[in-house]
Design brief:
By secondary structure, this protein is α+β, with helices and mostly antiparallel strands. The chain is 30% helix and 18% strand.
């Protein structure tokens, strides 16, 4: 007999299926659960303009981002030369990684429940960072808020951008989706 290993779904994915989809169907009047918004991918980007002159910065950023997300990032190259910043076309200027399926749910769970609460004087994330398609972008000034990194071994603090790309969505639906998975949005005075 062969043993089948059953994969345990990430906690956030389970919450999406059990709580978010029914709540979205009720609020927006969807007849089918496939009409509900769904996260297509999560993109994490570290822009490192100073990496154009020092390759070690890019290598460190790649290692640190790999520790945070559990996947090897690619190095991003400059599309055109910018003389004021001493950047040549094709030089390394950052690193990025695209997460899909279980990896994206695990990363978002750690971002929402572990990393964001560790930010000093954290009051919430912006509720206005949606594009027309309902995709959400969030900037972090310090990548050291993730517990996977040993702060003593980090040479330079780097910022990062996290973009959540949705399918079947718009601004209102994406906001409701993120609110239902407990994204800590800033409380407006009128909401209090």
């Amino acid at each position: 007999m062969t043993e089948q290993t059953t994969r345990v779904k990430p906690r956030l994915q389970q919450k999406y299926e059990d709580q978010v989809i029914p709540a979205m169907m009720e609020k927006f009047g969807f007849k089918n659960k496939l009409q509900a918004p769904k996260i297509q991918k999560v993109t994490i980007n570290m822009g490192l303009g100073m990496g154009a002159s020092d390759n070690k910065i890019i290598e460190d950023a790649q290692k640190e981002l790999a520790l945070i997300v559990g996947q090897k990032p690619i190095v991003t190259k400059a599309k055109k030369a910018i003389s004021n910043f001493k950047i040549r076309e094709g030089s390394s200027v950052g690193c990025a990684v695209v997460l899909r399926r279980a990896h994206m749910y695990e990363f978002l769970d750690r971002l929402i429940n572990v990393a964001l609460p560790r930010i000093r004087d954290f009051r919430g994330v912006s509720n206005k960072s949606f594009d027309e398609s309902g995709n959400y972008s969030l900037g972090l000034r310090e990548h050291t808020v993730f517990p996977e990194l040993e702060i003593d071994k980090v040479d330079k603090v780097k910022g990062m951008t996290v973009t959540v790309t949705f399918k079947n969505s718009d601004k209102e639906k994406s906001f409701e989706f993120l609110r239902l998975i407990d994204m800590p949005f800033i409380k407006n005075k009128k909401d209090s």
